[in-house]
Amino acid sequence: MDIKQLRYFSAIVRMGSFRKAAEAVHISQPALSLSIKGLESKLGVQLLERGSGKLVPTTFGKSLFEHAQKMDSLVQNALDDINQLKGIGEGQVRLGISPFVATTEMGSIIGRFISRYPRIQILTCHGIYSWSMSQLISGDIDFFFAEIPVDTQHPDAVHHELFRMPYKLVVGKQHPLAQKKQVSLEQVLDYRLAYGKDWAADIHGWSSAFAGNDIKQPESFIDVASSEFYVSLAKECDIIILNPMTSYIRQQVERGDLVKLNIPGTDFHTVIALVHRKQQSFSPAGQFVFDEIKEQISLLTSQIVG
């Protein structure tokens, strides 16, 4: 039994799925399954209940998970001490953050990082892709986390795709379309739409869905606003909102206050990435923060996109 096997096992318990855990730890699903079978063989016990639904740990699995969490914490503390001795644990890093996607998760990641490395100063700013890119190229920030516009690859930047954020058309529970099992794009056009006007350039599948059906793409009657604003709007009138399926929106759907419209043949999503300048030479602290955010976002992807 090694540390890597324990981390793989912990990822499965946290996410309840071999597929999601494999994506988080960056190995193939067959390799992950083989590793867990090897771990169970070494221990001589079954660690997971493999049913048709979510994977759950057995009694043996729950015990191992608790100890694995403690061991992971001890290993992380050892690495932190070594990094401090190497001088990585100090310096200044300037980071751009998307104002719309994974803000809660990014706050938690950065907060935990600051707690572990109080001598690393992390300066953050919020902005959409175009603004963040201008700050990056001018050297005012070291890297940024954002939604990448469709077909956009800046020649002086490198984009590291982290995950894809699904977007859905959502209505309040009182909306006439809320009880329909399927809805067509033509039916959507019978109602006013609300979405950030800048979002249309970022959402894959949005423009093409209407063009493919010879339908004029609808305009939003509201400019950029918060998800909370759109949700409150949808609860009070018969509009349709286009929104990223963040944890906040999913909670509203699970509670029954909002309803996702099922529109066959559509797939709306944005690409979320970390972006830095080409041939950029990070400071030790900058490289450390970049790698840490990339790893932590990968581990949290299932929580972000559901």
Automatic annotation (TrEMBL):
A GO molecular function assigned to this protein is:
DNA-binding transcription factor activity
InterPro entries tied to this protein: HTH-type_LysR_regulators (IPR050950), LysR_HTH_N (IPR000847), LysR_subst-bd (IPR005119), WH-like_DNA-bd_sf (IPR036388), WH_DNA-bd_sf (IPR036390)
Q: Where is the signal peptide?
A: none
Q: Which GO terms describe its cellular component?
A: cytosol
Query: Is DNA-binding one of the keywords?
Result: yes
Please report the stretch or stretches of sequence annotated as the HTH lysR-type domain.
1-58
Keywords attached to this Swiss-Prot or TrEMBL record, sorted alphabetically, are:
DNA-binding, Transcription, Transcription regulation
**Family, similarity comment:** Belongs to the LysR transcriptional regulatory family.
Put simply, this protein is called HTH lysR-type domain-containing protein
